[in-house]
Design brief:
- This protein is 49% helix and 13% strand.
- By secondary structure, it is an alpha+beta fold.
- The longest helix is centred in the N-terminal third of the chain and has 39 residues.
- The chain is globular, with a radius of gyration of 33 Å.
Length: 448
């Protein structure tokens, strides 16, 4: 028998073996593909990798920005800790303090904060749903781009001082209200209401911590408006307070109309289409008519009302909502400012053009170029701004038999200017005409 050991293989066999090994290691089709196909495959692969990396980078950046914005804006727990620290030290007291700081039956829920110095959260207080608002400390400021409020004074809780009598505190309240709303005949009645709220535990005695909490709240426009309109239905009810943290009843439906979209979608939607989209998700027309009447009544109540006049400096849909009965509710009253306070501050504002005299989104006065100071009178009354906000809302779906007259009245309303005596007469006439027109159309329905 012949041994095959060390017998060399023929050259052809070696070539076949090497070729077979190559086929096992590499796909045969790869070698058959032309070079331009291989190059295209590599290009697509690199393109896929690039866009995948780009998507991950952009997504991470968006998450980071959103998280950073959230942590910068939503500081409710810091506000709670500050309030509870002062409560436990006996500096402040109020009807919500025990539930917030000891019993833990008042919870901060979802954050709705738009400005870091004014924290807004949904809240649960036992069986009640509400909105919790808390003020963060900040230096006092009178910049027209921010609220006209004494925030540092409110946050310090150093007034009234120890030893202040109830009568002296009453005088402080009267003096403060006079500075805010002007010298009104019935300020004493409003001061009595303030003292009634101050006695949070209803024991017939006002303690120094309770008085300090109330004094802090009186610095806020929203709290003052809630006091002035407490007998009306336009403002949510005050459920409780602790220091300058306070709880208002929840408004089920807000904003007044419109839908919220991610910012990346907002960029690509034309303004005209966006306005149309805002009207897609609204109640039936009779319900919209009742809500609109509510806004007109709010304007009426704060125009030479029981406790003076207020100017509405942000008449946007986000500032209003409504309840299950379709009663209008003010969601954000920070920019509904006492006229006397507004005029005092605006006079001090230096200007070169009229646009320098803008407060909020809607309160514009003119610039006196001889003095380079803003004049005190707003160029558009509250009613004109309210009608402009309602125009698209109430005309969409309006019955044909009232649409023409309604449109005519709305445009006459929007055209109102200034606050002369003649204009005030026209103001009242248009307001009454609009309310009458809407009420006549819905008074016979169950929606009224």
């Amino acid at each position: 028998m012949k041994s095959t050991r060390n017998v060399p293989l023929p050259a052809a066999d070696v070539r076949c073996s090497a070729f077979a090994m190559a086929r096992g290691l590499f796909p045969w089709g790869f070698f058959k593909k032309p070079l331009y196909v291989q190059a295209r495959f590599s290009y697509l692969h690199m393109k896929y990798l690039f866009f995948s990396w780009l998507a991950v980078f952009v997504g991470s950046w968006i998450v980071y920005v959103e998280y950073s914005s959230y942590t910068e804006l939503c500081r409710g727990h810091d506000c709670k800790n500050s309030i509870c620290d002062k409560y436990k030290k006996g500096v402040i007291d109020g009807s919500a303090c025990s539930s917030l700081c000891e019993k833990d039956t008042l919870y901060l829920g979802k954050c709705y904060t738009a400005k870091a110095n004014s924290q807004v959260y949904s809240g649960i207080w036992g069986d009640l749903e509400g909105v919790i608002k808390c003020q963060m400390e900040e230096a006092p400021q009178y910049d027209l781009g921010s609220e006209i409020e004494h925030r540092k004074e409110a946050a310090a809780f150093n007034k009234p001082t120890e030893g202040t009598s109830v009568e002296k505190f009453r005088e402080m309240i009267l003096s403060h209200l006079k500075a805010k709303v002007g010298d009104q005949a019935n300020l004493a009645d409003l001061a009595t209401q303030v003292l009634s709220i101050t006695d949070a535990n209803k024991d017939g005695h006002i303690s120094l911590p309770e008085a300090r909490s109330t004094w802090a709240l009186l610095q806020l426009n929203e709290f003052l408006l809630a006091l002035v309109l407490q007998d009306r239905e336009h403002t949510p009810k005050l459920l409780g307070f602790c220091g300058d943290l306070y709880v208002m009843e929840k408004v089920p439906y807000s904003p007044l109309y419109g839908i919220s979209l991610p910012w990346i979608m907002e960029v690509w939607i034309p303004a005209g289409l966006r306005r149309s989209m805002d009207q897609w998700f609204t109640p039936s027309w009779p319900h919209k008519a009742k809500i609109s009447i509510g806004l007109l009544e709010l304007v009426e109540d704060i125009f030479h009302g029981t406790f003076g006049s207020f100017v509405m400096c942000d008449v946007s849909t986000n500032s209003f909502g409504y309840n299950d009965r379709h009663d209008l509710k003010v969601m954000d009253a920070r920019y509904i400012v006492p006229e006397a306070t507004f005029q005092e501050i605006i006079r001090q504002q230096r200007c070169d053009v009229d646009e320098d005299c803008l407060y909020g989104a809607d309160c514009l006065t003119s610039c006196d170029l001889t003095k380079h100071r803003c004049t005190p009178e707003v160029t558009r009354p509250n009613l004109a701004k309210a009608c402009e906000a309602l125009k698209d809302y109430i005309l969409r779906g309006a019955p044909s038999d009232v649409r023409e007259e309604l449109e005519k009245q709305l445009y006459a309303c929007i055209a109102l200017k200034g606050s002369t005596e003649q204009m005030e007469i026209e103001h009242s006439l248009i307001l009454n005409n609009l309310k009458t027109l809407l009420w006549k159309k819905i008074s016979h329905t169950k929606d009224s």
